[in-house]
């Protein structure tokens, strides 16, 4: 009998877990052809998440868990899941039921047909503003322009991966992880399945705060590299200043119908080139910071316990 591991990163999910367990139990009972392993990665939750998981494990030995020594973030929880998964394929799922477990049989069906990476693509982006859709579209466009690896739009981490994808991903040990681009990078036979993403069942999203920090700064935690980011910051007001001053000069020239004056042109040029230079420094800093982080070669995560056994972390 083939074994399917469902990897669920969980951070402060005590409110969602009962719903999740109920839905998963229903699913596992309806799909009899496979053996299941539900692998929770408790990402240093501060609530009762780990106690709940342990409770489930006591009555159901299909439940497994890895308990981190602290919060390491979802990306790291995912690689830990891959490390500890024992199944012939794995499925990533969020704990908040935004990814409907009922889609799993369909993912498995395509896996049986020979696909290695069956990913769920969000059908609609209902309830999202025009601006959000537009920025996300632009983001994908730019990202795709910058890389020659094909990027899958509107897909989260909800996907099924064959054992050979798992083994490939396990070899990628960089510390600043972006799973989405890694899934694209490994290649193999991919298949897309459409679904509607549900709203979270309970609890609150952990990303709002995190997303802001990640997108804008991406390194408050790695404070040693954030000084390198100073120039990126300085370049932004420089460009804003340039823009405002540019509009002002042009408007004034038009209104008073005079030619642009030398000092104005000089100020504009200085603002423009200093802006470009500071920005380039910032970009160099970003990469330097990454090299610094990778060169430390630290373990990606530390495990407190695995299925009740204290981990020695001496691998
Ligand atoms: N998560 C995690 N570690 C974190 C933040 C989130 O393991 O530091 C998990 C969380 O428990 C959930 C999944 O990642 O299972 C997605 O998080 P969330 O629903 O908050 O993100 P969103 O769906 O809003 O993007
Ligand atoms: Mg969510």
Describe the structure.
The protein is of the alpha/beta class and 315 residues long. The protein has 2 domains: 3-208 and 300-310, Alpha-Beta Complex (Spore Coat Polysaccharide Biosynthesis Protein SpsA, Chain A), CATH 3.90.550.10; 226-295. It has helices at residues 17-30, 49-59, 74-84, 104-112, 130-146, 163-170, 179-186, 207-217, 230-255, 262-296; strands at residues 3-10, 35-42, 63-68, 89-92, 117-122, 155-162, 190-195, 303-306, 309-310. Helix 9 (230-255) packs antiparallel against helix 10. The radius of gyration is 24 Å and the shape is elongated. Uridine-5'-diphosphate binds at residues 9-11, 13, 43, 71, 73-74, 77, 94-96, 98, 200, 205-207.
Question: What's a quick, concise take on this entry?
Answer:
The protein is an alpha/beta fold and 315 residues long. The protein has 10 helices and 9 strands. It has 2 domains: 3-208 and 300-310, Spore Coat Polysaccharide Biosynthesis Protein SpsA, Chain A, CATH 3.90.550.10; 226-295.
Element layout with pairings:
Blueprint (H helix, E strand, L loop, with lengths): L2 E8 L6 H14 L4 E8 L6 H11 L3 E6 L5 H11 L4 E4 L11 H9 L4 E6 L7 H17 L8 E8 H8 L8 H8 L3 E6 L11 H11 L12 H26 L6 H35 L6 E4 L2 E2 L5
Parallel strand pairs: 1-2, 1-4, 2-3, 5-7
Antiparallel strand pairs: 3-8, 4-6, 5-6, 8-9
The structure holds uridine-5'-diphosphate and magnesium ion.
